[in-house]
Amino acid sequence: MSFGGLPKPLVERMGAFIADPQAVVNLRRYFGIDLPPGTVAFTGSRFEHLAGGGDRPEVADRVTAEDLVAVQTLSVTVPVPVALDLLEGHLGAHLSDLLRVVPADLDMAQADTVHLKPGSPAYRAWELLFGQHGVGWVTAGKLLARKRPRLLPVYDDVVRCALGHPSDFWLTLQAALREDGAALHRQLLELRQAAGLPETVSALRVCDVVVWMRHRIEHRNCP
Question: Within the chain, which residues score under 50 in pLDDT?
Answer without folding.
Answer: 1-7
